[in-house]
Amino acid sequence: TQPFTVAIDGPAAAGKGTISKAVAAHFGFAHLDTGLLYRAVGARMLTGEDPIRAAQNLVAEDLDNPDLRSADVAQAASKVAVIPEVRSALLDFQRAFARRAGGAVLDGRDIGTVICPQAEAKLFVTASAEVRAQRRFAELQERGADTDFDTVLADVNARDARDSSRADAPLAQAEDAVLIDTSDMTIDAAVAQAISAVEARR
Ligand code: C5P
């Protein structure tokens, strides 16, 4: 079957992951959470490795590291993500994944703008900072992390500021992306809206 790329971008904890998995399952497409690539590089930087070398030598096992979801690794990810050589080292892998036979969903910050500007369908998923921090806080609590709401909100804001202001591939809505604001939406409603937006491009 023909390649078909769905690009899903947006700020931290907006619901991109949940929506991407549901869209991929619905259409039978493969899914790549591109944030995991930056998190894996960030995790290797935290062990003292040079981030550019880490990005150039990333292997599949790096993505299985259970620590990738921690707040420390998230901040490290957004720090390595400002380095152009880190971004360029991860480019070919993402583009090849996007054009695989049978369709692909990629979620991140720059998929619709830089990685796959020709994507057949583009979504920009967002929500207010408070709502996103609340969701991330609930998720961290569920995993037993010792944190409080204000810390999570500050982390989310710091990461958004860094992601939006960097020179290379900043977080931005592509001109032709469909905007989905999930602030006042259930997960099911957001997923349904995403699926119909992709269906409209088929
Ligand atoms: O999506 P996630 O929160 O896992 O991403 C972690 C960090 O990786 C983001 O804050 C961002 O700095 C970076 N990232 C990026 N480009 C992407 C995906 C993630 O710069 N396509």
From TrEMBL:
InterPro entries: Cytidylate_kin, Cytidylate_kinase_dom, P-loop_NTPase. The keyword Lipid biosynthesis does not apply. Residues 6-198 form the Cytidylate kinase domain. The keyword Chloroplast does not apply. Keywords: ATP-binding, Cytoplasm, Kinase, Nucleotide-binding, Transferase. It catalyses: dCMP + ATP = dCDP + ADP; CMP + ATP = CDP + ADP. It comes from the Bacteria. GO terms for cellular component: cytoplasm. ATP binds at residues 10-18. One of its GO terms (molecular function) is ATP binding. Its EC number is 2.7.4.25. It is found in: Cytoplasm. One of its GO terms (biological process) is pyrimidine nucleotide metabolic process. Pfam families: Cytidylate_kin. Belongs to the cytidylate kinase family. Type 1 subfamily. HAMAP family: Cytidyl_kinase_type1. This is Cytidylate kinase. It comes from Marivita hallyeonensis. The lineage of its organism: Bacteria, Pseudomonadati, Pseudomonadota, Alphaproteobacteria, Rhodobacterales.
